[in-house]
Amino acid sequence: MWELLDVAHPGDRASAIFDVAIRLLIALNIVAVILETVPALATRAGAFFSAFEVFSVTVFSIEYVGRVWSCVEIPRYREPVTGRIRYALSPLALIDLLAVLPSLLPALGVDLRMMRGVRLFRLFRILKLTRYSRSLHLIGRVFRRAREELVIALSAIALVLIVASSLMYYAEHGAQPNLFSSIPAAMWWGVVTLTTLGYGDVFPVTPFGRLMGGVFAIAGVLLVALPTAMLGAAFVEEFRREREEETTVATHENAGGERCPTCGGPVARDPATP
Fold first, then answer.
1. Contact 136, 7 (CB under 8 A)
2. 266: phi then psi, degrees, rounded to nearest 5
């Protein structure tokens, strides 16, 4: 069961077919959620959308239960009870649960008449693609590698946003009390200015306010470049490390080495072992 549900390894045809089928079902679900918001389509094809939702929830629920049941094949989840609980609390398992929970709540008797927006959480199903997408795995590793630098950069942006909004409030409150009624209200101007969007719905009119606006607009260009450079460097490092791993695996296979049936990686052996 676990070999079928896990991401397919080279040569595992059955698991590869299952992966393609699940990815296709996820993509169709996202399309259905989007099209269901079109009133004309929702009226004419309401029965189809409902039937497709029931089918999808059934498949995703079976997949989720199967993963929780068979996860004990992974060494770190080998304990029958605590292992399954720890797996159910892992990020990917929680994503699988969120993919079916919004549709299961009404069936369990939960009154969602006042919470119809919860159905939009079905869009969480797109996150299930992270299990099968190598590119999304790469993006995740990049963010983990650069998380400390990103926290520093975002902290600097937040500090500048607070300072800019405060100064703009004191500069413009007297001239535009409706637009700059408070520092939190002035933060809207700060956000669109520091991110270089500049919608033009809120702008300074006093000489000092315009001077500060120009200074912080230039500062915004520099601040936005910080996370971009950090993520770019992290991407380059991850690409380099990934190429090195692929070269190592290829060299190992060419030498006749074995691969781990669980992770697909090369198996290190003692040279003295025949």
1. no
2. -65, 145
For domain 2-132, the CATH architecture is Up-down Bundle (1.20)
Structural element, H or E, at residue 182: none
Q: What count of Cα atoms within 13 Å lies in the side-chain half-sphere of residue 71?
A: 22
Look up residue 113 and give its two tokens: 């008449």
Tell me how many degrees the CA angle 134-136-137 measures, rounded to the nearest 5. Answer: 65
Report pLDDT digits (tens) over 38-67. Answer: 888 888 988 998 899 889 889 989 999 999
- Which value, in Å, is the radius of gyration of the alpha carbons in the chain? 26
The domain 147-254 having CATH identifier 1.20.1640.10: the answer here is: no
Write the burial class of residue 141 (CB in 10 Å: 0-12 exposed, 13-18 middle, 19+ buried).
middle
How crowded is the C-beta side of 94, counted as CA atoms within 13 Å? 4
